[in-house]
Amino acid sequence: MGGGVKESMTTSRAKSRRHSIDGRTPASGPVRARDHKKLEAKKLRKGKNNAEEDLDSLKTYYKKLRSSMRTAELGKMSEQWRQEIQEEKIRADRWEKKFQDA
Question: Where is the segment annotated Disordered (predicted)?
């Protein structure tokens, strides 16, 4: 009789394993929450990787843009532009004064 009880326990364990996922115990509250947290972390990592790739792409684009601006001599600072405009205004005023005097 002792062998029959042991055999029925083994059979019931096998049945419970069949109902579980990957041989683990059936999913309960804490296990599902843990799986949910893992999935959430995976999604966040994927989003972070995508954001980093986008940032790298933008940095590359910015570097190329700055390089092309330098070659076109458009990369002046706003202060440099103000100074150049001021100098041109002074020249224009001088020419206008000469024209009026003549």
Answer: 1-52
